[in-house]
Amino acid sequence: MPVWSCALPSPALPTERVRRVIDGIWATMLANPRHAGPRMAEGLRAARTLGSKERPVAGDVLSGLMRHHRALLRIAEAPELADARARLDWCADPVLRAWYLLCEVGVPGLPDPADPVDAYAIAVSMPVDIAREWWERLGPERAVAHARTIAGRAPMTLRVLREGFTLSVPFRRVGERALVLEGRLNLDIEPAFVEGHVEVQDLGSQGIVDAAWAGLGPGARVLDMCAGAGGKSLSLAALGATVQAWDVRQDALRALAERARRAGLPIRIAPPEGSYDLVLVDAPCSGTGVLRRHPENRWRMEFPMEIQRDLLGRAARMAPAVVYATCSLLQRENDALVRSVAEPVAERTIWPEDGGAEGFYWARVGSGVAGRGTVRG
Questions:
Q1: Angstrom distance (rounded) from CA 117 to CA 131
Q2: Separation between Cα atoms, residue 319 and residue 298, nearest integer Å
Q3: Could you give the number of structural domains in the chain?
Q4: Same domain, 50 and 132
């Protein structure tokens, strides 16, 4: 199979009613691409004409349009497919028409571009410079596996905060505290979730928690510097850490407070001050590691390296140990950035095609970080 189309699906054609909803939501997503994800979610919630089984179908199509945008554009523009596209003249949008062509005739046998990196950029629907990095780091065979993995759905995984629970769907354990669900679960009515025994947390994010906890023990003072809604804060508190959490997003901190209340875990929410045994920095990043859950990240990509360096430097002045992490799979935000500041004592890149986690990077660095590189105060 050509590389450019290696991740394309062969989907079923939605019903006319579902297609009408897709048309409307897709138009709102294109009108504001940076907020395509929220626009999609809002549109699906508001689609009262859809039944409970139709809404996921519409969501899969809309997510697929983002995941495979560059490949769909190639189908939409290929002269060889002009006659096939003409039969779908009831669909005006060229990308949607290309998707429905996939539904009717399957993946077309167009050849790869001459440069394999160009073909791979189409397959992952990413800029050529990012595609080149992945192609060269992974090699052709694994790069294709990566393309196919990020074109799919991430598994639903939970973190065990407190034992003594049951779940209404089958699951398998990964290590001591990770659960991978083997069915759909309505958390809002699941006793194990409502009573604070488990929380939603990706396997890769749980790996960052384990890296942060290494060498610590009960009572260790940990600052979660970019806590977001607090998944890592909850996990560390459940292990016995004394956790303080902070984030610039106040809505995320409100969600953290509610999650801590539900789990019965004492997490202090306050701006950083003083010293800690460890600071965890889950830095803002491009989000290139979580494209399965957030395909819209392709349309709002930013590379905040100055912010990342600043956070790493600030963290190093508050603790003898820092764990720096991102949900990025780009060296400019990960190992290259860390090494511009300090030599890590341990690090790991977690790739989605290896074991089902989303893509993450973490590095553990020790004392003396603040005095090196271009970190600002």
A1: 6
A2: 35
A3: 2
A4: yes
H helix or E strand, kind and range, residue 2: none
Spatial strand order in the sheet of 198-200? 171-174, 178-181, 157-160, 198-200
CA–CA separation, 26 vs 30, rounded Å? 6
* pLDDT digits 0-9 by tens, 335-352: 999 999 989 999 999 999
- 191: which DSSP letter? H
- Rounded to the nearest angstrom, the gap between the alpha carbon of residue 366 and the centroid of all alpha carbons in its chain is 27
Residue position matching structure tokens 């996939």? 102
pTM over 0.70: yes
Residues facing 280 on adjacent strands: 224, 323
Verify that 104 and 221 share a domain, yes or no: no
| pLDDT (0 to 100) of residue 369 | 46
Residue 67 banded pLDDT, cuts 50, 70, 90: very high
Same domain, 144 and 207: no
| CA-based nearest residue to 116, from 104, 98, 134, 101 | 134
**What single DSSP character describes residue 298?**
G
Quote the tokens at residue 348: 């790991």
Q: Name the token pair of 317.
A: 């002045």
C-alpha separations of 308 from 136, 271, 331, 336 in Å: 25, 18, 13, 12
The phi-psi region of residue 183 (left if phi > 0; otherwise alpha if psi is between -120 and 50; otherwise beta) is: beta
Q: Do 325 and 361 touch, CB atoms closer than 8 A?
A: yes
For residues 207 and 143, state if they share a domain.
no
Reduce the DSSP state of residue 273 to 3 states and report it: coil
Q: Give me the helices (H) in the chain, please.
A: 16-31, 36-46, 54-67, 69-77, 82-86, 94-105, 116-124, 128-138, 140-150, 191-194, 203-213, 231-239, 250-263, 305-316, 335-339
CATH code for the domain in which residue 264 is found: 3.40.50.150
The answer to whether residues 136 and 266 belong to one domain is no
